[in-house]
Amino acid sequence: MQSKAKTVQEYLKGLPDDRREAVEAIRKVVNKNLNKGFEEGMQYGMLAWFVPHSVYPDGYHCDTSQPLPFASVASQKNHIGIYLMCVYGHPEHHDWFVDAWKKTGKKLDMGKACVRVKKIEDVPLDVLGKMIKRVKAKDYIAYYEAALKAPRKPAKKKPAKKKTVAKK
Prior knowledge:
Blueprint: H1 8-13, H2 17-33, E1 39-43, E2 46-51, E3 68-75, E4 80-84, H3 91-103, E5 114-117, H4 125-134, H5 137-149
Antiparallel strand pairs: 1-2, 2-3, 3-4, 4-5
Helix pairs in contact: 2-4, 3-4
């Protein structure tokens, strides 16, 4: 659910108490571990952390008016989504994050970059903090630019369905 909030405080104020507490706990951990070169704000209707245009003028390739996304958190209809672009497509960070999360014994419900949780007790905050701390802005930008230049793999084609011929 995208919020129409323009500021972080406005976003937080619009959340139900239980969701606000969870999002604020996640926010506190991210802000505590965020390296120089990132900023907090609103992006795509979510509480977000990004590389501002003052650091990376090119912005996000999908919409260059937007700063380069790094991480975000949002209260969705059935879960809280923690979006970790710093993990997406980076095998070393992804594998470290998945392994560290699983070692805590907490269930990991994760897509390519989105971790879905129901309540704050589902989040190993120390693991989240360490993941955020692992990524410096200059390294993130370098990885991002390399990914943009990398040749795209062609989409996998589905095997053609066999045509059946009716017998007479």
